[in-house]
Description:
Number of domains: 2
Strand order of the largest sheet: 2-10-9-8-7-3-4
Bound molecules: pyridoxal-5'-phosphate
Number of helices: 14
Amino acid sequence: xxxxxxxxxxxxxxxPPLAARARSIGGSPVRDILAVTARPEVINFAGGLPAPELxxxxxxxxxxxxxxxxxxxxxxxxxxxxGEPGLRAALAARMALRGLATDADxxxxxxxxxxxxxxxxxxxLEPGDTVLVERPCYLAALQAFGFxxxxxVAVPGDEEGLDPEALEExxxxxxxxxxxxxxxxxNPTGRTLPAERRAAVASVAARRGLWIIEDDPYGExxxxxERVPWIASYEEARDRVVLLGSFSKVMAPGxxxxxxxxxxxxRRACVVAKQAADLHTATVNQLAAARxxxxxxxxxxxxxxxxxYRERRDAMLGGLPEALPAGSTWTRPEGGMFLWARLPSSxxxxxxxxxxxxxxxAYVPGAPFYAGEPDRSTLRLCFVTQTPGExxxxxxxxxxxxxx
Length: 404
Ligand SMILES: Cc1ncc(COP(=O)(O)O)c(C=O)c1O
């Protein structure tokens, strides 16, 4: 019997390298540590996962059953890049109901709002263009802008969110193309930008020439306080605000359904970019979501979820004074999924994570959320995935881990 000789690797010519933008995105030590939090005994405040027991499994299953039984040829077929007309119309009607006049044609359905971010980065940004973001900022937005080769600059702010005066100074100095903001129940801080600041941000964009991406996956998860109007609803900036929405936090993230509402030329460019990316978002998921909206009461469902999330937020707020070292401060979000803590400046939450995870609890260190100089004493906690009892136990472990 003859055995084939393996080809010596030294005979192989080297492969051409990855693109520079892919090479620059390295591994992350934080991701390596957080990988161990998949162990079932870990109480994981790090993931941004909606509570799975609150998914309306029955309602979503019925919507899929109905569209597959009644229109299987359509549900399983290719669709248009812009999205299923019935879903676009329903999304437009929901926005109009919340005070933002919208036509179905203004809406592009996306594969999660994360895809909307990549599409916008593709069609708006040249390598080297400047993007302004909040300090701190949603991590995967930093990634999307980084992939496009953008220079990302953080706008200073305070506990209410970004500071419009600082924004205007940066716009004058840095000549950015766009501002990316999550004004309501921000990821990672949970803070909400007040209406006066929204008006001021819209005014800066109008006067100084700036696109705004207003990302709002959490706005409907309000537990208390008054709804604040979208930046997109201020007349001055109507032609330059892109509003992003998502079913991930109000229906289910596995559906991968998001949308963008954008002015004509920009939206048409996003349609072409989306065609190149994935042709269209899954037809069956779009039809099922439209069916769900027609047959069920999504707002009532979201109200139930928000009621449970409120109890969980309160459980976390109740346990933090005992868990965090003296001198720590934290946000008190009126909705959403996250809160943000700042420990005394001698603490480095990235360094401490390994030790804390050994106590079977996890958070996300704050540093990766910063464009530019990070505040290393900060951390993000997700308060919605565990029950109040588990949150109490998790905070007890966190306290132990931080005390060493
Ligand atoms: C601020 C923000 N934008 C966008 C996304 C992406 O959501 P989607 O599941 O719609 O892609 C998230 C997810 O956590 C988020 O926090």
